[in-house]
Design a protein that fits this description.
It contains three helices and six strands, in the order ααββββββα. By secondary structure, it is α+β, with helices and mostly antiparallel strands. Strand 2 and strand 3 form a beta hairpin. The chain is globular, with a radius of gyration of 19 Å.
């Protein structure tokens, strides 16, 4: 009986650890809603990042096209401080949806956003972002 209780408690503990370390994302908003909600939407190439990935990780970017946001503030972003960390790679170009939800002075990105490699972005998404930017007076 003691062994059964010990195994049960060990499994419950393991389940709690696994649940605590999982990244749970809410369903994505529509592109228009997400565009309105986030602080910045833009394309950029990763030019530098630390080789040792401590969290939060500061990613240095070369900004290409801005759909929303202040170009000067977009050259550095922070990755999430948990298991929702987005896997950026130096030399790759991304379509980034960034937010300053956690800090008014830093933009954050995580894997729950629409952020993706630019080559994975569909033409329709980029066209819609262009329209949303024009509607917002960006271009």
């Amino acid at each position: 009986m003691r062994l059964s209780v010990s195994i049960f408690l060990a499994l419950v503990g393991l389940g709690s650890i696994l649940q605590a370390s999982a990244c749970e994302c809410t369903p994505l908003l529509s592109r228009a809603q997400e565009f309105k909600q986030v602080t910045a939407v833009y394309t950029a190439t990763v030019v530098a990042m630390p080789s040792r990935r401590n969290t939060p990780t500061i990613i240095q970017l070369k900004v290409d096209k801005v759909f929303k946001g202040n170009r000067k503030a977009l050259s550095r972003i922070l990755e999430a401080e948990n298991n929702c960390q987005f896997n950026f790679q130096v030399g790759k170009t991304y379509l980034i949806y960034a937010d300053n939800e956690y800090s008014p002075t830093a933009l954050f990105v995580n894997k729950c956003s629409r952020t993706k490699e630019l080559i994975a972005a569909k033409k329709e998404e980029l066209a819609e972002l262009q329209k949303l930017a024009a509607k917002a007076g960006r271009q």
